[in-house]
Design brief:
CATH topology: Alpha-Beta Plaits
Order of helices and strands: EHEEHHEEEHEHHHHH
Number of helices: 9
Strand order of the largest sheet: 2-3-1-4-7
Structural class: alpha+beta
Number of strands: 7
C-alpha cells in the first residue's frame, strides 16, 4: 500500500500577484525540504495544487501536517486587500486543503513524473469534491482528509483530523512556523536559535498550537500503519 497527499491552496486566486509569486516560491522550497527530510517526491501543478508521494507510509501524517503548518506560516499580509479580502482571509485562516490517500499504486516513475493509481485518484477526488474555486461564498468545515477503501479506517481518521483541523485553524503564523519546525525534527533550542526568539517563547507557541496532541496523532499514525 502507498500514501499520496494531494493539496489545494485555499482562495489562491484572490491573492495579489506578488503574494501568488511568494506562495509559488515557498511551495517549491517546501517540496525541497520534504525531499531532504522524508525523501518525498512532490510537484506543483498550476501554481496552487500539489501532489506528494510519501515513500515511507509511516511518515505520511507527519508530512501532511508539516505541509499544512508550513503554508499557514507563509507571511501574506491581507490588510491592504479590498473586495477580495474575505476570500483572502480564508487563505490566512486555513492555508491549504489536504487529502491523504492510502491505497494501491499501479505506477510510480519519479524520473518521468508519473504517479498513477488508486491512492492518488482517491486523494485527488477528495480535494476536487471540496474545492471552493467556483463558489460565490466560501464555507469551509474541514481541510484535512484521509481516504482509503476501508470505511472504518476513514471514519477513525476523519474524527482525529477534524480535531487537529480545529487546532490548526486557530494557529497564528508564528505558531505555525514553530509547529512546522518541530514536525521536521527541530528541538526547541534549535528553533529558538533559528528564529532568534527566546526558548521560553518557542515553548509557549508549541503549547498554544497543541504540540503534545499533534505529536500524539503523528505517533498513533506510525503505530497504526
Amino acid at each position: 500500500m502507498y500514501t499520496i497527499i494531494s493539496g489545494d491552496i485555499i482562495s489562491s486566486t484572490s491573492l495579489h500577484p506578488e503574494h501568488k509569486k511568494l506562495l509559488r516560491n515557498r511551495l517549491q522550497a517546501l517540496l525541497e525540504d520534504l525531499d531532504r527530510d522524508f525523501s518525498v517526491y512532490g510537484r506543483i501543478i498550476k501554481g496552487d495544487y500539489i501532489e506528494c508521494y510519501v515513500p515511507n507510509v509511516q511518515d505520511a501524517m507527519q508530512v501532511l501536517l508539516a505541509i499544512k503548518s508550513y503554508v499557514k506560516a507563509i507571511p501574506v499580509d491581507i490588510s491592504n486587500y479590498d473586495t477580495k479580502q474575505r476570500r483572502a482571509k480564508s487563505f490566512r485562516e486555513y492555508g491549504i486543503r489536504l487529502a491523504l490517500g492510502f491505497g494501491n499504486m499501479q505506477q510510480i516513475d519519479i524520473e518521468e513524473g508519473i504517479l498513477d493509481g488508486e491512492a492518488i485518484y482517491m486523494s485527488g477526488r477528495m480535494i476536487n469534491s471540496t474545492a471552493t474555486h467556483n463558489t460565490k461564498r466560501i464555507t469551509i468545515k474541514n481541510t484535512l482528509f484521509f481516504v482509503s477503501k476501508d470505511e472504518q479506517l476513514n471514519s477513525k481518521w476523519e474524527a482525529i483530523l477534524g480535531l487537529v483541523d480545529v487546532l490548526l485553524s486557530k494557529a497564528t503564523s508564528r505558531q505555525s512556523e514553530v509547529l512546522y519546525l518541530r514536525l521536521t525534527g527541530a528541538s526547541e533550542k534549535n528553533i529558538s536559535e533559528r528564529l532568534g526568539i527566546d526558548q521560553s517563547v518557542v515553548n509557549r507557541h508549541s503549547t498554544s498550537v497543541g504540540w503534545n496532541a499533534i505529536e500524539g496523532v503523528v505517533d498513533y499514525f506510525r503505530k497504526t500503519f
